[in-house]
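Blinded run. Sample ID left blank on purpose so nobody reads anything into the name before looking at the predicted structure. Input follows.
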Amino acid sequence: QVQLVESGGGPVQAGGSLRLSCSASGNYNSGLYDCMGWFRQPPGMPREAVAAIWRLNTGIYYADSVKGRFTISRDTAKNAVYLQMDSLKSEDTAIYYCSASALGCGLNSAVYPFWGQGTQVTVSS
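Blinded prediction complete.
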């Protein structure tokens, strides 16, 4: 079993920045889970993709809504993935989830069998 734990969420004013972290533990082999991603669920809305990254940083994907503002990165040695969020907007308010997959990569949540519990990000205008 793989455990994913997110951290770094909280309140922030519009235009500000936050950096989310996700640490993987348990029966986790960073060489096995080639892809890690971030998704979010705004209040009253379905979960949506934010960004994803291959293990060797050979492929990175962003949702159009966050391109140019968010940056995903990962440290394979630390079994961690990060999401740097800049120029935050009120519409970025959501619960942010970390995910891991050995089945593929990209912005389709269906390829991710493992999920964290989420961390709340609240952007005030």
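Unblinding after everyone has recorded impressions. DSSP finds no helices and eleven strands in the chain.
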